[in-house]
Amino acid sequence: MKELRKISRLRKKQHLDALIMEARNSSSPMTAVHQILKRYAPKVRQKRLQLRTSQGHILTPQEEMQQIVGHFKQVYKQPDHAPSGRPVDQAVVFDPHSVLLAFSKLPNKALPSHFLPAPFWRASAHLATQVFQQTLVAAYDREELLLPKAWHEIQVALIPKPSKPATSADSLRPISLLSPMAKVLAKLVAEEIRPIVSNAATHIPQFAYLEGRQTCDAIDRAFGHCREIRERRQNATVTTRDRRAGKTAQIVSGGVTLSLDLRKASDSIPWQCLQTCLEHFRIPASIIQLILYLHENATYIFKTPRAQGSVLAGQGIRQGCGLAPMLWTLYSLYLASKLDTAAPSALKTFFADDFRAQWTIETWSDMKSVPTQISKIVAVLEDHGMQLSPGKTVVLYSLWGTQVHACLKPMLYQHATLGKCLRIGAANLTGKCYLLPVVMSHEYLGVKLSYKNFEWQTLKHRLRHSWIAYNRLSALPKSKALPVHKRLQLHQCICLATLRYGLSCTGLTVAGRQKVYGTVRQWRALANNLPHITGLSNANFLTNFHLADPLEGLDTTLIKRLDKVESGPVAQLQPTVVKRWWEHLRKITNDPTVTQAASKVPLRHQDARPPAPCDVCGLSFPNEATLRWHISNVHVKLTKEQHHAKEAAFRERKASHMQHAHDGMPTCRHCRHEFSSWPQFAAHHNRQCCPVLHLGCAPTLPPYPPDPEPLLQDEAFLQEAQSDDWKQLAQKIRAIGRLHYCPFCNLWMAKTAMLHQHIKAQHVDATAHLDQCQHFLLTRKGVNSPCQHCGTRHNRVMMDELTRGAAEMDLWKSMMNKPGEVGQKWQGDRAEDLSRQKGRQRGDRGKGNQSFAKQAKQASGPSSLDNDEDDPLREAVKLITTLSLRHEDALAIHRQDTSYVFFMKTSPPELTVLSDLMRVGSEWKAKKEQSPALVTQPLRVVLLGCLLEAVTTRMQSLQDPTLHAKAQTAKLLNPAGDFHYMMWDDAEKIYQNKDDRESIPTKAVLEDIATLQRLILQPRVVGRFHAQRKLAPDMQGEVVPFVLEIGLRNQASHAVYFLLDKYCHQAIWHLAGTSLRHDKLGRGALANALEKLAEKL
């Protein structure tokens, strides 16, 4: 017995070693590990679901099933009646050998609870094949195709989603379990259409579910575009040298990426669209008939220990069968053909239900077209039953240029919770508006997409997942169940495989290789061999435990993958940017240092650098940065005088760095190193980094010849400048090429207008010289400069002429001020006239006289003028009031073309719609707070739509003879049933019919209101629709005015305006207890109150 146990343990150990080695040597180690765990892990009992209400109350089993069934009825769009069989046109016949092969290869996956496991079906493959063939032949012998009910039943196992609590049905993931017969039938149909799918996908970038295509192909397209845009941005930087060479900055350039994920994509495919798709790719009619029959008769069975329910399928494709991947691939190819028209300039990539579009922006119009193309993409997807996944659909962009902000401003929107978003309008008449979050990086197929350093971000992302997998194995070092070498092998199969995923698409730099090599720390922790305890180096640790370097095999895997894709059919799908990305990957694999940016500062030898001694304690430091840190932290009590002296010396050295420049450019004249900017050049000398000047190294090239002296230090030039006039001086400066150089330090500036600011900032001591230059320019005639419009040449006047002109203006001013009594008399007469105007009644004067009355009050006497002069605040308030009232008058004129007013009655309750509008508004606000993503229309559109719906409903209720008679009694209808126009009679205090306008038939009214209901859903149509008073349950007064404002800028707004103009004063509004008219020309209550307050000042 002891020998038997010993042999059993030995064989078990050998078997486990073989499995681990098999997984380790597999091309996909993680998949192999999962297969091993799936095969040998103990079965885990399915956790019981515990759903709750929205208030958190636990549901009973029956209530749980009702919630589950109700949720999936909405997902699968359950039809109202059970489907019937399809007429048989042509029978589908399968080869018996193919059927036998399908049964013999039935996978070890879960089957419905009332079926035997898969090994029994594989063992009885011959018998199952006979039953399958007989059943299929019998189904086609009838007039209608009719398969057994068990073939259509799909048992659904619900498991919680990892990221959501299992408290509601929408947080559960359905796992479909088909019968073995249904699985085999689906696999056979999939094999029939596989050649057609492969042929259709030849020129379409769908990289999922297709032979010879993999995840790395989709990632390569994304990374190739991102690297192309990143290199363009690096090359687009305009440095000082570029400006001197004549290069200008681009207006708008860059790239945009749309990463779009579809929500419940497979479950949302309409069957009509699926049939169109199958016919588009010329699938045989018999196969189309069979596919649609299988989906139309699918029944989803939900079981819990105490309840059971079922849902009939109304849309979508069946999950859990071998046909679903082929159907979805075919449908995605069909969508790709439609999206080529919607976004012709985008680089599109498909992977399962993930869609990505990338644009290269070169002009302003390219960027303007991107939101339009995105809206068309969304419209195409929605027209074919797809819905966006709001949490996974994002936009990335990298844009630069002089007009980027002006181009992006109308496209971006700052959302309270989503942050910066790209606003996408609807390309159809649905009126929807999408806000797509703008992010800097995004996870895509396990890697990180970004226009910056996506290689490093991907490596960090994979390292994080590697540590997560390692933490799951953290209990292994404490357990003696596995020996050390088993733990290390298990780590290589799981953690190292997790880390390596995606790195064959990015390559590794020197820094990246160091990060990957850090995996040795995890190995040493698993082996309890920490370096600070054992003192063993990493190399010796790998040797002692017979472990390979974690970097081993990465480069080989990358090169093999590149060789395979470059010589395969996938290379024909990839654009030029992807092929350049492949070349880059080969470079960094052969020489990882090529990605390390060359140091902008030449290498320094630490030993040759002169030390920086401390004046307080005498210690020496390698550089001044370390010295300053030492002084600030050690010698805290350093005197202010010493501190100021140190800072002054540093500023003096910083200001003198121009003596080391060459030809006014940031080029070191000693070591000839060219810098892209002046701060880098200044740091090169301020930090004493020049190898020739500071470190004493011998120059490799001869030094530059000396630069010419600055203009203000050239005595010969100054003498000539004093003798020449301005025109000759300017021509001379241009001729010697010193127009863009600073006259004090020889700094070259791209714009001569910036020289004045540079002199003020950098040459503070030269202010006197600057004043002399300005005086010199003002005392000379200007150069004859032609007008840019007419070409006429003008001379700048001399200083003495300007002086004479100013003196002449002073003379005219003195002459105007002499007859003071005339001016006083005019003011008095004007005040008297205006006072008489002020005494008139309000109804006898127009609005224009109000401003004159205020002027009269201001000009009523010397005392008022003195007070205004003494109190400038009062004068400012008066001016602001006048300006505000003028603005109010201008807006009132503008509202004549945009505004309407609804007067809604507060009683009787059965007629007014105020209570309905209040209820709808409250529900809209509650829904906005609880589920903002579900609210697609603003409150103003919702309320206006409810008012129109109320009018439509009450018009339809007039078919009742009693209500029709009441409407005629109220003079709303004529005997023919047409609606009158009605106007308020102020004398009689009632509405009277207007005979000067023709009545409108009921049918025409209903058509126009339906048009209004459709048009108001479009963006920028309804600008405002709100009450002038706050709504309450018990409203005081007879009516509540509602102001409606219509837009001006699109065709839908014009159509709404003309329809509302047509129905002003129409009797149809009285059915809902309201009336409609144009907004009148006049000031509002707030403006009138402001006017009264201003008169008291």
Automatic annotation (TrEMBL):
Region Disordered: start and end of each range? 819-872
Polar residues compositional bias, start-end: 849-865
Compositional bias ranges of the Basic and acidic residues kind: 827-847
Stated name of the protein: Reverse transcriptase domain-containing protein
What the entry lists under SMART domains is as follows: ZnF_C2H2 (SM00355)
* Reverse transcriptase domain residues: 140-418
InterPro entries for this protein: RT_dom, Znf_C2H2_type
Q: Which organism is it from?
A: Symbiodinium natans
This protein's source sits in the domain of life called Eukaryota
